[in-house]
């Protein structure tokens, strides 16, 4: 048996910035939206380490900063529970200004994403070897009651000593931990989030295996199975499309197919996947047949009365952290809501409130879609449309329904900047050119809300929709008007949604 030579570790160039009077920061290894990973020198032990700094943007509210801080502590605690050559090792945690800095081993190597970008697709046998090592690491993670939730090529390190190391446990979930909610965050990376998580359904270890399948697919094909030009398109593809049949995978293909099965109950398990990968890594066949096509859910579009013919109103949004922190083993705590008679769209916004948003607004006697109510101000011009789907039995059921509705609509979203044609007959506008706007989170409206719209390019008219949930009621509020009018379209939609949320909150209170 050959001995592994002991390498001399070169000392890095020093700088003046220290953490905890021990770790001297040398250079950033990687930066993200919420922090930086530094190469640092441990001046006590005389070795280089990796230090992960929590560094959210300045405009992050204090409550969201607190969530991010708790996530960092959760990551450190999770890594401390794990001892496996395929999992990054944590050495220390120090606290600076209330934020944890995680000190980890420094792995000499490149990420799988860097390797793919620089060298192109990897041979199937090599990918099978990588997959086997990652499966062994994930088995250790799952045995400790943890879920990684962010398996992707950039979180896999290929070390110079041959190790395959799973890194970045920032989204890890511990069984029994309380759910952490940060409004507006995307939990995971588009194209690598398992479909059951996008549908806000219970999930567990099979979700990590699905992400592993997408990672190995990217390694052997050179791009992920659901890579698209825009985030919402990738998310929609995960929900509604099967992965394209790989062309370079050879005997690895059936393993990828079974890992990427959309139904987690039908997805291949860890032991069976390990056995198949071992066979492929040894130069043989996987022993698996290719799975059949999935029964996928198709996108849904909702028609709005203010738009005619050329386009239907489609609402899509980033996947919110609300609900995504609750795997199968961590029960959600439903928010209590008073029992009441089903609400109607016309009861949620008064005529006076509608006129405060659009002078002279009159309620339409005709509503082309059940559950809708609309007000038209011809002189402004402006139109307000309120749509209430079937009321849920509880706030938790409404939250799940909203997540499913939002995510299933993603593939129907035309994408930021995509040209469309709108017609607004009441304003005398025919075939108005417009582009769709990027969906984003709205804070301070109901319990959760997202906004999406269309911006006119041939006319100064915008159509903005807020999809909002308050307690057990989900509502879509659309405001269509001129951008230079008395009330801007997005402001009108948000104000109307806030009025409706207040009306829902007043249910059951004495007048």
Automatic annotation (TrEMBL):
PROSITE patterns: PROTEIN_KINASE_ATP, PROTEIN_KINASE_DOM, PROTEIN_KINASE_ST. InterPro entries: Kinase-like_dom_sf, Prot_kinase_dom, Protein_kinase_ATP_BS, Ser/Thr_kinase_AS. ATP binds at residue 52. Its EC number is 2.7.11.1. Residues 23-280 form the Protein kinase domain. It is an enzyme of class 2 (transferase). It comes from the Bacteria. Keywords: ATP-binding, Kinase, Nucleotide-binding, Serine/threonine-protein kinase, Transferase. GO terms for molecular function: ATP binding; protein serine/threonine kinase activity. SUPFAM superfamilies: Protein kinase-like (PK-like) (SSF56112). CDD domains: STKc_PknB_like. This is non-specific serine/threonine protein kinase. It comes from Actinomadura rubrobrunea.
């Amino acid at each position: 048996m050959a001995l592994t030579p002991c390498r001399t570790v070169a000392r890095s160039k020093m700088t003046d910035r220290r953490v905890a009077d021990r770790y001297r920061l040398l250079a950033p290894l990687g930066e993200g939206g919420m922090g930086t990973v530094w190469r640092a020198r441990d001046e006590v032990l005389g070795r280089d380490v990796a230090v992960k700094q929590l560094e959210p943007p300045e405009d992050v509210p204090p409550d969201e900063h607190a969530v991010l801080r708790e996530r960092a502590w959760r990551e450190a605690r999770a890594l401390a529970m794990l001892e496996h050559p395929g999992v990054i090792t944590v050495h220390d945690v120090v606290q600076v200004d209330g934020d944890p800095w995680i000190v980890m081993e420094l792995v000499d190597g490149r990420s799988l994403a860097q390797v793919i970008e620089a060298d192109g697709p990897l041979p199937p046998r090599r990918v099978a070897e990588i997959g086997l090592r990652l499966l062994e690491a994930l088995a250790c993670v799952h045995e400790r009651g943890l879920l990684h939730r962010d398996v992707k090529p950039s979180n896999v390190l290929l070390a110079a000593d041959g190790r395959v190391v799973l890194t970045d446990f920032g989204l890890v979930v511990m069984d029994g931990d309380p759910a952490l909610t940060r409004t507006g965050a995307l939990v995971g990376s588009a194209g690598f989030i398992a479909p059951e998580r996008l549908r806000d359904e219970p999930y567990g270890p099979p979700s990590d295996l699905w992400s592993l399948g997408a990672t190995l697919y990217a390694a052997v094909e050179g791009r992920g199975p659901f890579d698209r030009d825009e985030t919402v398109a990738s998310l929609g593809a995960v929900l509604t499309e099967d992965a394209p049949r790989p062309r370079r995978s050879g005997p690895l293909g059936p393993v990828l197919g079974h890992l990427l099965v959309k139904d987690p109950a039908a997805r291949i398990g860890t032991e069976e996947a390990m056995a198949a990968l071992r066979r492929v890594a040894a130069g043989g066949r996987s022993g698996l047949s290719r799975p059949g096509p999935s029964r996928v859910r198709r996108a849904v579009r909702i028609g709005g009365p203010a738009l005619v013919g050329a386009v239907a109103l489609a609402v899509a949004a980033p996947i919110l952290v609300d609900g995504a922190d609750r795997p199968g083993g961590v029960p959600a705590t439903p928010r209590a809501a008073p029992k009441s008679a089903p609400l109607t769209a016309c009861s949620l916004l008064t005529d006076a409130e509608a006129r405060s948003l659009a002078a002279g607004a009159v309620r339409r006697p005709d509503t082309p879609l059940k559950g809708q109510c609309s007000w038209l101000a011809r002189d402004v011009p402006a139109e307000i449309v309120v749509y209430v789907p079937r009321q849920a039995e509880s706030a938790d059921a409404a939250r799940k329904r909203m997540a499913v509705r939002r995510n299933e609509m993603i593939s129907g979203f035309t994408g930021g900047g995509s040209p469309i044609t709108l017609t607004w007959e009441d304003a005398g506008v025919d075939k108005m050119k417009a582009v769709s706007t990027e969906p984003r989170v709205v804070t301070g409206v109901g319990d959760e809300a997202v906004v999406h719209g269309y911006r006119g390019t041939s006319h100064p008219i915008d159509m903005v929709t807020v999809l909002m949930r308050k307690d057990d009621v989900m509502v879509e509020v659309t405001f269509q008007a001129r951008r230079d009018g008395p009330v801007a379209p997005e402001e009108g939609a948000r104000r109307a949604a806030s009025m409706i949320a207040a009306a829902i909150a007043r249910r059951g209170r004495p007048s």
